């Protein structure tokens, strides 16, 4: 599977593969990523065997362009 997966893709796959209704699958996926986010805030690195390692990376601010207006702005 070399395509991008979006939140809804995870919900659909979980629902289909495990016979869950989509509402429960969506609750599970959102809670799963919320737990990763909270762990990153505390630990800075989260390792999930078979899935990967998540970590926070500091980056310098940079300039971007609003595609709707063409206005330049700084991303902190």
Characterization of this structure:
The chain has 76 residues and is of the alpha+beta class. The protein is 45% helix and 21% strand. The protein has two helices and four strands. A two-stranded antiparallel sheet has the order 1-2. Strand 1 (45-48) and strand 2 form a beta hairpin. Helix 1 crosses helix 2. The longest helix is centred in the middle third of the chain and has 22 residues, at 22-43. The protein is extended and about 45 Å long.
List how many beta strands DSSP finds: 4
Order of helices and strands: HHEEEE
Compute the separation of the termini in Å: 33 Å
Helix content: 40-55%
Residue stretches low in confidence (pLDDT < 50, at least 5 long) are none
Largest sheet: spatial strand order = 1-2
Strand content: 15-25%
Which structural category do the helix and sheet elements fall into? alpha+beta
Task: Give the biggest beta sheet.
Answer: 2 strands, antiparallel
Global mean pLDDT: 90
Radius of gyration, taken over Cα atoms and rounded to an integer in Å: 17 Å
Determine the number of helices (DSSP H or I, runs of at least 4 residues): 2
Query: Could you say which overall geometry the principal axes of the C-alpha atoms support?
Result: extended
Quick summary:
By secondary structure, the chain is an alpha+beta fold.
Short key terms for the protein model shown above:
4 strands; two-stranded antiparallel ribbon; extended; alpha+beta; single chain; 2 helices
């Amino acid at each position: 599977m070399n395509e991008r997966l979006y939140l809804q893709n995870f919900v659909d796959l979980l629902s289909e593969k495990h016979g869950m209704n989509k509402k429960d699958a969506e609750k599970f996926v959102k809670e799963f990523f919320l737990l990763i986010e909270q762990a990153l805030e505390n630990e800075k690195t989260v390792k999930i065997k078979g899935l990967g390692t998540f970590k926070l990376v500091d980056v310098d601010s940079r300039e971007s362009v609003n595609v709707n207006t063409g206005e330049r702005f700084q991303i902190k």
